[in-house]
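Figure caption, in words: inputs first, then the predicted bound structure.
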Amino acid sequence: GGTAIATEKHKEIVNVSHRGASGYAPEHTIASYEMGEKMHGDYIEIDLQMTKDGKLIAMHDERVDRTTNGTGLVKDNTLDQIKQLDAGSWYNEKFPQYANSEYVGLKVPTLEEVFQRFGKNKHYYIETKSPEVYPGMEKELLRLVNEYHINKDTLLVQSFSALSLKTMNNLDPSIKLVQLLSYKTNAVVTDVEIAAIKEYAMGVGPNHTYLNEEYVQKVVNSGLEIHPYTVNDKETMNKLINWGVTGMFTNFPDLLHEVKKGK
Ligand code: G3P
Ligand code: CA
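Bound structure (SN-glycerol-3-phosphate present):
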């Protein structure tokens, strides 16, 4: 509410649909990614896990339990087994206000299927999750990026693991990288830390919770992008934009779109 103003800063903010428009649809389904696109998300955010037979799938957790009707670890299941799971019904039960019968029976998408559906020029913001559990996942990601001729100008690869990002950087230095960060208390970053990150990454993605203006300014002035996660209310969106962030992850890309328009 209130009067917000769309400044030049507001207009350029990168709108990342976090797990798709996951506030409104079951995360990491094609339906959720499509909704993110419809709601003016610039990027689709995709978390990667790897199946027993080495296929990259879009899923946040190492276990299938939370977001499907199955149980167990992704790494203990083949893609065929993962494909038998219902990745939509849980959402209808947990969020009845946004429930939709079309979500029943949705499948877990492979990264390959996401590339096939959205094409080479879609903006993808892909996270290597648990890279220590999945040796070779960076190589497989790069293989698919190349096979589907994904435009590297509109691709970002993100990870909490600096090692995983450095592995990507060694495999293909043209891939743009974002170092994820997690603060449990007031966020502080040193010049030494910034310099180390700049060796391989073009940006950082910290949790927004403990950020402050000084932190944001320091990062931006160093030449790094800064995309905090996961920002789900307009007040916080406006605050972060005024501090100088260059984009953010949100489960509600429609809200960020409105904020960018000064609404
Ligand atoms: O990738 C940004 C943000 O999603 C990191 O946290 O746990 O939601 O993947 P998480
Ligand atoms: Ca993520």
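The chain has eleven helices and nine strands.
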